[in-house]
Amino acid sequence: MNIVMLGYRGTGKSVISKILSEKLRMKLYKIDKMISESAGKSIPEMVEQEGWENFRKLESEIVSEVSSKARNSIIDCGGGVVLNDVNITNLKRDGVCIVLTANLETIIKRIRHDQNRPSLESGLSFEEEQEKIIAERESKYRAAADFTCDTSQRRPRETVAEITEFLNTKGWVKK
Fold this sequence. Notes:
With 175 residues, this protein is an alpha/beta fold. Helix content is 56%, strand content 14%. The protein is built from seven helices and five strands. A five-stranded parallel β-sheet has the order 2-3-1-4-5, sandwiched between helices. The chain is globular, with a radius of gyration of 15 Å. The two termini are 15 Å apart.
């Protein structure tokens, strides 16, 4: 069983995935890092030069590849992986989807100065963009979720403990 980490930018997927993989001694696949390595450039460079459509196409190819070979691993997905239903079908085949959430204020505080997150939609203020995209994706995150954790007021290790407890009650991992 793979543990698939989903959620919007700034909800803590990368940090929590890393801690979870260490705690559970599971291999960690970082989808955004794999995209960047495959493209030979950073995600902002790729999006600027090739557009979001090409980024999403490569993202789906990598999700398909990882989901077909990963076993007993953590898969840390970018925030937009839920936009393609095929991605979620592939990830759920051998995985449990953990969706991390946070309130808008927390997300904005966490990602405002991160230069590695290209704009998703032009013509809006930073705050308006985040609010709009979160609202658009919320139902997709909810539909994909086997378990949801709000990270707004929690430290990463507290979230990891909550996820581990959920997985343990399902018999998917041992503490």
